[in-house]
């Protein structure tokens, strides 16, 4: 069973799309091979819910983070071999031989390039297979190595009796016709299954090295997954993975304290913090490194966010109604007793303050009773926070403060316990001179009209 994340959540957190600016998959995509890139994208689409599987993947990435290595092939050279090994050879060696011999005749008589290309592909494949064998030899295959299972499988493939000719062809640039027929038949027919397994391991290794190098370069850490019934989350030094020199914050949730209620002024960093939290939970369920100093979490069934809910003009939905439908969707999922992480950024900002107050209060209180789920909810309406503090004992009230340097606001981006009393909206408006602009425009129009 895969950890569930819907399209709205993917968009809110900018998870997918390797060509999208600042997407999370793009952040990690330092793969070299086409197969490695596809595997990375598959991992992003299928996060895990089994703590043992998550921790196993984490241990592999962590292992490669300690190895001073780089992927041993370039994109261009492996692409040729990747395409060659992916194609099926003839089941009959005589048919295969006749086909290659015919290419050789065309090459001699008409300078046709197919024979020359095949010769190059096989030479490149031999060279790459030898280099990969030498590369793998540097790793220890003892049982303490979390990658030992794949290392042992690689060594079994290379010890296959039909592959013992390989080392003798190191450095070969041109292969005689009959050897070419034999090698092509062995690689693409007799050993086709083994070559596909080996290719899959190369793709997996490509991803492992890429992810581990990103983790080292950016200072990410690896989370520890716990069974779902532990119902626990602890993050130290959480920050957004795409923000350089970001300020870290600590978060913790348990069953009897399962709601983080966040207040703070605009620009104080609430949305960024909430996205950071959602991204870390998603990556942790993938077994990927997270942007935090330390993280331990109980696995959940899925993640839902409501951060940038768009209106829907085709369906005739206003922004407020789109928000309502989003909350309804999450409510239905929570009501099915699923263990979820839910992130709501400023509920019901598309309606008037009175309705937003009433709806945020009643819906947040109702959600909080589902102690198997973890919630992070933000609001501008601090009166809601004060009322919830009287009604509920399973809330953590936190805020991101604004410090005033005279009339200029400064944001610390550092979480503080409690409920904010910051109300600097009008100060910011006045600092930008908006009222003066409007008044001066009106005054200028009046003068022009009089003249």
Automatic annotation (TrEMBL):
DNA mismatch repair proteins mutS family domain mapped to chain residues: 257-446
The keyword Ribonucleoprotein belongs to this UniProt entry's keyword annotation: no
Keywords, ordered alphabetically: ATP-binding, DNA-binding, Nucleotide-binding
Domain of life from the UniProt record: Bacteria
Key word Flavoprotein present: no
Pfam families to which the protein is assigned, alphabetical: MutS_V
A single MF term (Gene Ontology): mismatched DNA binding
GO BP annotations, alphabetical order: mismatch repair
Entry GO CC: cytosol
The name this protein goes by in its record: MutS domain III
Organism name: Pedobacter steynii
């Amino acid at each position: 069973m895969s950890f569930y994340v819907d399209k709205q959540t993917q968009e809110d957190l900018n998870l997918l799309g390797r060509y999208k600016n600042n997407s999370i998959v793009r952040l990690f995509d330092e793969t070299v091979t086409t197969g490695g890139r596809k595997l990375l994208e598959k991992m992003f689409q299928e996060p895990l819910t089994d703590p043992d599987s998550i921790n196993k993947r984490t241990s592999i990435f962590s292992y490669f983070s300690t190895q001073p290595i780089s992927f041993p092939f370039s994109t261009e050279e492996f692409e040729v071999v990747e395409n060659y090994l992916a194609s099926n050879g003839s089941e009959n060696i005589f048919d295969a031989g006749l086909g290659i011999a015919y290419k050789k005749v065309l090459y001699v008589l008409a300078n046709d390039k197919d024979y020359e290309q095949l010769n190059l592909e096989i030479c490149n494949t031999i060279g790459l297979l030898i280099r990969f064998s030498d590369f793998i030899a540097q790793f220890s295959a003892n049982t303490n190595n979390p990658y030992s299972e794949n290392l042992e499988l690689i060594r079994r493939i290379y010890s296959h009796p039909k592959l013992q000719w390989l080392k003798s062809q190191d450095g070969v640039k041109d292969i005689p016709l009959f050897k070419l027929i034999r090698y092509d038949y062995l690689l693409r027919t007799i050993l086709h299954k083994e070559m596909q397994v080996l290719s899959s391991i190369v793709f997996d290794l490509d991803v492992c090295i890429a992810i581990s190098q990103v983790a080292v370069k950016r200072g990410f850490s690896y989370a520890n997954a716990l069974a779902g019934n532990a119902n626990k989350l602890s993050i130290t030094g959480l920050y957004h993975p795409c923000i350089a020199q970001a300020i870290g914050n600590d978060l913790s949730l348990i069953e009897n304290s399962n709601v983080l209620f966040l207040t703070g002024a605009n620009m104080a960093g609430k949305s960024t913090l909430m996205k950071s939290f959602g991204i870390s939970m998603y990556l942790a369920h993938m077994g990927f490194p997270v942007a935090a100093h330390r993280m331990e979490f109980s696995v959940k069934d899925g993640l839902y966010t409501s951060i940038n809910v768009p209106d829907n003009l085709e369906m005739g939905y206003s922004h407020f109604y789109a928000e309502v439908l989003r909350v309804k969707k999450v409510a239905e999922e929570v009501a099915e007793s699923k263990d979820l992480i839910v992130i709501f950024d400023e509920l019901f900002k598309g309606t008037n303050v009175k309705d937003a107050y009433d709806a945020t209060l009643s819906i947040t209180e109702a959600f909080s009773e589902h102690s198997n789920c973890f919630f992070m909810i933000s609001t501008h309406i601090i009166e809601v926070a004060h009322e919830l503090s009287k009604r509920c004992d399973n809330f953590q009230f936190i805020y991101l403060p604004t410090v005033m340097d005279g009339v200029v606001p400064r944001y610390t981006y550092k979480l503080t316990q409690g409920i904010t009393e910051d109300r600097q909206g009008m100060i910011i408006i006045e600092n930008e001179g908006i009222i003066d602009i409007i008044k001066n425009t009106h005054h200028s129009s009046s003068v022009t009209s009089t003249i």
